[in-house]
Write a structure and sequence with these properties.
Layout: E1 4-5, E2 12-14, E3 25-30, H1 54-68, E4 86-87, E5 98-102, E6 108-112, E7 116-122, E8 127-133, H2 135-140, H3 142-152, E9 160-164, E10 174-175, H4 177-180, E11 188-190, E12 196-198, H5 200-210, E13 218-220, E14 245-251
Parallel strand pairs: 4-5, 9-13
Antiparallel strand pairs: 1-2, 2-3, 3-14, 5-8, 6-14, 7-8, 7-9, 10-12, 11-12
Length: 252
């Protein structure tokens, strides 16, 4: 679905369709609209250390905090390393690519600019996970690992719902043979440039299904971050000079 207006007049957020996740679970992602950044970071970059002016990033983060109402200065974040490590929320970022959540944990977020944000929530809304899933993490099985961790906490796979948020799609993701061969042939496509391309959201969906999550309870966003330059930053499209989104999950 297209991004939707937030409580702010200018800030624009992507949200999944109603009913994709249980009541009380808030999952959403910033777009590049409604902020203070300029140039390749225009206009709602929330990532530090990517070349943007720190003052602009701080202003964007302040707008976001005011719109969503989380009490902390920032949500809990990670030092993302494109792996499959999952952690509980911490006050300072640690090396990992996913959070394991319980009800009433603080707001958490992962940073993306082509990789997929993935929300997994138990039917009762009391357990869940938020993942940063690029191709390496997907091959490593981060989605299946999250499902298994939920089972350890007492939630069976068939009781989970999942949403794969906006990310790069096969139309814009040609890869070399050394990457392509790590994916099942059903997840590889012939790209217009002659290379094979990888269906990243499809691979994440397949991993969730293999772990036992019913297909009917998995929503995959149609938006390709590399295709939609109006709404999304893309590391691939912009050759590394671009902003970052935050994708949030909060369980009531």
């Amino acid at each position: 679905m297209p991004p939707s207006a937030s409580d702010s007049d200018s800030l624009l957020l992507w949200r999944p369709p109603a009913g994709s996740l249980p009541d009380g679970a808030w999952f959403g992602m910033t777009t590049r609209r409604g902020g203070h950044s300029q140039g390749p970071y225009a206009s709602f970059n929330v990532g530090l250390g990517v070349g943007d002016e720190e003052a602009a990033v701080a202003a964007n983060r302040a707008v976001l905090r005011a719109a969503l109402g989380y009490p902390e200065k920032t949500p809990a974040l990670l030092h993302q390393v494109h792996g499959d490590t999952l952690v509980r929320p911490t006050k300072t970022p640690v090396k990992a690519d996913g959070f394991l959540l319980r009800g009433e944990d603080p707001w958490v977020a992962v940073a993306t600019a082509d990789c997929a944000p993935v929300a997994i929530v138990a039917r009762d809304g009391k357990r869940g996970a938020l993942l940063h899933a690029g191709w390496r993490g997907t091959v490593a099985g981060i989605a299946a690992r999250a499902v298994k961790e939920c089972a350890v906490e007492g939630t069976r796979a068939r009781e989970l719902r999942a949403v794969v948020g906006p990310c790069i799609h096969a139309c814009c993701f040609p890869v070399g043979p050394e990457v392509a061969r790590q994916f099942d042939p059903s997840l590889r496509r012939r790209h217009a440039g002659g290379q094979e391309a990888v269906d990243l959201p499809g691979a994440i969906r397949a991993s969730l299904m293999e772990a036992g999550v019913p297909a009917s309870r998995i929503h995959v966003a149609a938006e390709c971050t590399a295709c939609d330059a109006e709404h999304f930053f893309s590391h691939r499209r912009d050759q590394g000079v671009t902003g970052r989104h935050w994708a949030f999950l909060h369980l009531a």
